[in-house]
Amino acid sequence: MTVVFAGGGTGGHLYPAIAIADALRERRATIAFVGSAERLEASLVPKAGYPLHTIASHSLPPRLSSVDFVQTVGSNLRGTLQSLRLLAKLRPDLIIATGGYVSFPVVLAARIARLAHRSDVKVALFEPNASPGLTNRIVAPLADEVWGAFGDEDGRFRGRYVQTGTPIRPALRSLPSRADALGRLGLDAESKTLVTMGGSQGARAINDALAKLVEDRGLPSGWQLLLVTGPDDYDRIAKRLANAPVEPKRVEVRAYLDDMSDAYAAADLLLTRAGASTLGELAALGKPAILVPYPHATQEHQAANAAHLEAAGAAEILCDSQLQARLRELLARTCAPERLRTLTENAQRLRSEDPLATILARVDILASRRGKR
Questions:
Q1: Which pLDDT score is estimated for 73?
Q2: Do the beta carbons of residue 26 and residue 290 sit within 8 Å?
Q3: Are 172 and 257 in contact (CB under 8 A)?
């Protein structure tokens, strides 16, 4: 079986794709990715051991001025022609589109090839967010199935939606012991651990709020902090905290963690953005969280994601604009033993059937339908 993944731009689009690809590779499938040469997939996909074919693509502009419109149409038309040639060469049995504007030309090319009777490749669209992005809303009518993490809340998906959950990275499927993880991270085995991170690129607002919390001696008693700043903000935050009034080993600052398994194993509570891959990991691992949705996310999808975990009683939500003013009070309340126990128990209840098993079953079903119109 040959499977082509189309998508990229963010970890939320790429990490689930790589998790599915790894599972298919174990079944001896041939895997290829299609993405952009300028975005996150250019480094992440080859590092995961997969070939990346790059095409032209362009996001829809916020306002359809004549220049932007011509650039958008021209770039995506070029990408569609490139995709037609690429699909003719790769001859995939299945295309899995995982979001990002680069997936549009690939899915469009697959539909054109089918209409021209040059291919019978099936297309699955993976939507990890509670509120689908613009590209996925456009692509959905061209897909044979839509796989998602939440309920079928969008009418465009009706009749083709399968709730699968979000697959997580292989390294997170079996966490190390808490003691070993804390030791490797340089943290105290006797303290409760707050892990904060802002996604693959970091989040300046979260970093500043946590730095101020440490400077003001606001960490709850008996708690320590692992602050993953993102590469661009590490030097600034590390310098700011170098002389902060904090006990030794109570704060560990890292720019990035290639393998998040130690961080998740060590975490008693996480403070994060509400991106799709992060929420999939929180649910799969049963970890409680304080979620700070990115305020500029398309269609406010991070706020919609966070609302699902809050409704399940597994997370607190803190608005980005309120980080500085409310973080200390909310953290103290959330870290209180009874409240933390309740959040943890509710988070554990979110752990359900393995999303990968469900997705692999759908792959087999779609592949079996090749040639059927």
A1: 87
A2: no
A3: no
